[in-house]
Amino acid sequence: TKSMEQLQKLQLETEKKYIAPAALDFLLLTAQKHGMDKKAFIKAIIQQSCLERSYVYHLIGGEIRMKRDKLIQFSIIGGFSLEETNTLLKYGQEAQLYARDTRDAVIIYSINQKLSLIETNSILDELDHEILK
Questions:
Q1: Most buried residue, 72, 92, 99, 131, by most Cβ within 10 Å?
Q2: CA 60/CA 42 separation, integer angstroms
Q3: 37-64: per-residue pLDDT in tens?
Q4: Which string of DSSP letters, residue by residue, matches 51-75?
Q5: How many CB atoms lie within 10 A of CB 103?
C-alpha cells in the first residue's frame, strides 16, 4: 500500500475475511454436521459425561469457558474426527492433540477408533493417565 488509509482498509478486510469462529460455534456446527442438533447434542453430553445438567447448559451457553479436556470430551461425544477435534481446540485457544504426549496419544487412538468417552477414560485409567474430566 502507498498510504496509511489503504493499509488500515486492507487490515480491516483481512480481519473480516479470516476471522475464526468461536469454539462454541464450531462445536455446535460440527455436531450438527454429525447429525446432532443442539438439543440432541446437549442430551448426549449430559448422558455420557456425567456432568450436571445446569453446568452443561452454562458451558453450552458460553457463560463458562470450556477448557481443553471439556472440548475433547465434547468432541468425542459428538463423534468428531481428529482434524475436527484439533480445529475445535485451536478455536478454543487450547493446545492441539500431540501424538508424542502419551496421554494425547491415547486420546488420538480413541478418536480414530471412534471409542466412547467411557471407553476412552477406561483406557486412560488403565494406562495410568488422568481421565478426561
A1: 72
A2: 8
A3: 999 999 999 999 888 999 999 998 889 8
A4: --HHHHHHHHTTSS---HHHHHHHH
A5: 16
